[in-house]
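REQUEST ID: PR-0412
SUBMITTED BY: lab tech R.K.
PRIORITY: routine
TASK: structure prediction, single protein chain
INPUT:
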Amino acid sequence: MFWTICAFLGTSLYIVIMIIPHTLIAIITRSGNVPHIIARYWARWTLFCSHVRVEADGDDNIPVGSAVYMANHASYYDVLAILGYLNVQFRWTVKKELYRIPLLNLAMKGAGYIEIDRSNHARAMAAMKVAVEKIRSGTSVMIFPEGTRSEDGKIKYPFKKGGFHLAIQAGVPIVPIGITGSRPILPKGSSIVKPGRIHLSIGRPILPQGKDVNTLMHEVYEAIQANCKDDSKQG
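STATUS: complete
OUTPUT:
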């Protein structure tokens, strides 16, 4: 409970202090790059307050230019680990429910995150078009292809297809990321934060050219599995 309180107070304090500068910078710059950097330090601060360490490897696999990044997802702390330690200017695709959270919605809009309405096909397709335009303009996109957090830590397969259509349409590589260690810190259904260590392993880019969605999906799934540490590989 101690670390839960520390995490809540720490992240809340940062948001209260930075939300106005964050919003003003977003309005002035419009690119979303500086708000993304501010959000990166919010993530690192929250991880510090939670007594969670993050290790990352595979930076040499980050391609020059834009890409679609995909990772497994078992905890909200995956978001913090990626936001804080993936050294890329990217934009999240975010389900519309998160835009109902006060202050957080302002921060996400300011950073240029892409709202996805899964209950409305037309709006979801429109959001994907926005994402394609962002990618073609040079900005990467980050997606959890499982669509939601895994309850047991196992990677949920098959994945949602939207991100694969996105990579094919934009003609950019998919970069697989294996995340280890996040679930014990805050598993789905829990509100208690426990200290721990998260490992991010960035895999080699996977090119979509000449592949259909199902082939590409399976290749990415295998790569994410391979980039999880041996003691956490699930399937």
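NOTES: The chain has one domain: 2-232.
REVIEWED BY: pending
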